[in-house]
Amino acid sequence: MKQVGIFSGSFNPIHIGHLALANYLCEFEQLDEVWFLVTPHNPLKERTSLMDDVLRFQFVKQATAGYAPFKASDFEFHLPQPSYTIDTLNALSKAYPSHQFHLIVGADNWLTFDKWKDYQTLIANYPIFVYPRHGYDLPTVSPYESVRFVGAPIIEISSTFIRESILAGKDVRFFLPPSIYDSCCSALKSE
Question: Homologous superfamily of 2-155 in CATH?
Answer without folding.
Answer: HUPs (3.40.50.620)
